[in-house]
Amino acid sequence: MATTVHEPPKIERRPDPRLTSHSGSGGWRNLVPADGNLRAVKDYSPPPASTGIWVVLFAITMTFAAFTSALIVRKGSLDWRHFTLPSVLYLNTLVLFASSITLELSRRRVATYMGGVRNQAAHPARWLYITLFLGLMFVAGQYVAWLQLKAEGFYLATNPSSSFFYVLTAAHALHVLGGLGGLIYVIRKLSQSALRRSTLNATSHYWHFMDVLWLYLLLLLWMKL
Amino acid sequence: MHDMSAHAVHHHAPPTSFIRKHVFSLDHKVIGKQYYGLALIAVFVGMVLSWLMRIHLGWTNYPIPGLHLLSSNGAPGNVMTPEYYLQLMTMHATIMVFFVLTTAPFAAFGNYFLPIQVGAEDMPFPRFNMMSFWVTFTAFVVLISSFFVSDGPTLGGWTQYAPLSAVGKVGGPGEGTGVVLWAASIGIFCIGQLLGSLNFITTTLDLRTRGMSLMRLPLSAWAWFITSCMGLTAFAVLMPGCILLILDHVAGTSFFVPSNLVINDQLQPHSGGSTLLWQHLFWFFGHPEVYIAIIPGMGIVSHVLITAMRRPMLSHRVLIYSMGALAVLSYMVYGHHMFVSGMNPVSSLAFSFPTLIITIPSTIVVLIWLGSLYGAKLRINTASLFALGFISMFISGGVSGFFLAQPSIDIMLHATYFVVGHFHLVMGVAAMFGIFAGTYFWFPKMFGRMMNETLGKIHFWLTFVGAYCIFMPFHYLGMAGNVRRYQAFVDDYTQRLIPVHQFITVAALLTGLAQFIFLYNLMHSRFWGKPAPDNPWEATSLEWSTPTTPPPHNNFGDKLPEVFHDPYQYGVESSTGDYVMQASPEKVKSAHEEA
Fold first, then answer.
1. Which domains does chain B have, with CATH numbers?
2. Which of A118, A220, B20, B36 lies at a C-alpha separation of 20 to 30 Å from B522?
3. For B99, how many CA atoms within 13 A lie in the half-sphere containing its CB?
4. Bridge-partner residues for B449, per DSSP?
5. pTM above 0.90, yes or no
């Protein structure tokens, strides 16, 4: 794959609204000036993926906030039994963090690549594949953690702490799988030379958010309140 | 007008195959019509269920011919069992709240008209938009399928209070598979609405055409935008609640089931769960949901009324800010549904204050409507009549909210028909009137034909009078102490109220029949109605500037419109008459001060 020669993807330039304009040129950064002279409008509105990703992240935050409030309420009951988290989780955390670093490396290379600099030793997709692999490693690692817990006799319904452990890790893993789907989409678009920078940025925002979310969940599950 | 050759974000070519054109369409207009169709089917199912309940309440133990076909267990000898009554009640509420009041005013009209009103050629993520509808449709199929499982649908009410909803079959008929199907359906529905909200928000923020500043958006577009922000927050919280409920059911966890719970002489194996936790998760969604149902109606009605009044509202901005305030406050008041739940009384007090405060933006909205209507030369048509009906219902139903907001009064009234009357008027009927106003107003643009005005007006008057006949007596029943959710009234004091129930039942049957006039008008006009001109109501917003009626696949043809005016420039002197279109570059004399 690294030896394949690809056409550089399309460069998403900032359109000059005086020359070209598209649906969206009245976007939120683009208020009508007081004198009503629309030709003087300089700024352009962001591609929807740039806004959309924050909308998605907000919804995910709300979902995990709901889970958190349920966990806090449930921790207050007498039958809560705190258990030691499987050690593989810490390794998984490192893997997920590493995947964020590789994605960031990849993002920068794609940006350079999009800028027309093509004498790179490797095609930028390489780092995306590594990110994809690390993401899969993380999900597999979470599954190993489940197996370890199962071996210790902690099942979904054993006690509330194990219930929340399985629910939160499963919900997070599903979101990570969604992110992997996003990465595959990015790789496909890159190979077709049709990747938009906004799509790549949105995917990387999502992926980094999965890191932060995981760190938060780990802390939540690890803490003895 | 400007060239949109550089526009590439969401462009897709017109579909050619039948499947892509009508079934798995990416076109927001087709998706909007699909949502409308789903809501139409759902509302008639929900209405028939309410008929069955009403007949049973008026004439308990009277056999309803053919009822056993619906459920042989639930209606042996065509007589409804108490459990079956509750099952029908649950399904009526769930279908109406989720699949009618959320889908029609928000998802259906919003999908069709939001992109056009902002001047875009489609939503930014058409595939998500298509998924949004089909996911919602799947949710409806899952819900309806619970009629066909062995012990029927759940009987827990649309609120599905734990612990009975979380313990399985021991909780009663339908509390096994029925609850799982219910929770799965609602969880799936949440995904559909989250995808929809994502599209609505990004459409409004990013796809506005040149010149379309936020304050130049029509009030309907604002209402959909505010609603989508609420949907994003509310549905994202209900979904985890549904997941936890299903796990309590099928995996034996104890999120919502407390220790030492004995149901039907059986000790439940769960321990330590919190029943109030479910109520918090549910109502954090549930209260905003009633605003998700009504705010699009407020926007639609304002839009329709302004066109009929030929002048803008007293304050465009204040109306928008008030709808925004309603949205924010709706998250702070949800605990008023839990005054009688055993929650800490201090919490009740804390939830009571914002509940009283939320009446302020509601009142401001109503006063702006009334103040704007004062002295207006209103063009009376079916759409404007339904808009007036909306205001009437909203006030009548809203006034009882002042009483219910106070815990001391609510404790007495909470479990009575007073609350049933309150929420049906303010949320159910008012929102339905918003849907009707929108239908009569936008039908010409959606289908290129006019609806029959005479039939429309007959439909309005029968529905308007009928709705009051049904729901006003509920308040009297409640004050007389008639408890709700009971399937029959055998106590001395409630037996005397049965004639009132019989009156309501007759009113409900007749008002329901009147809806078939609407259905006939809708279907007949769709194919044989008078061809509609491009702008039959002489309205100003962008949906009336499309090159054809219905709009072409990309809404505006080769050129996207450029916006030069506030949305409601009526009562001015222009070349078109007393109004100037948003997309018209014409400078007009005595234009209203631009926002």
1. 27-579 (1.20.210.10)
2. B20
3. 33
4. B531
5. yes
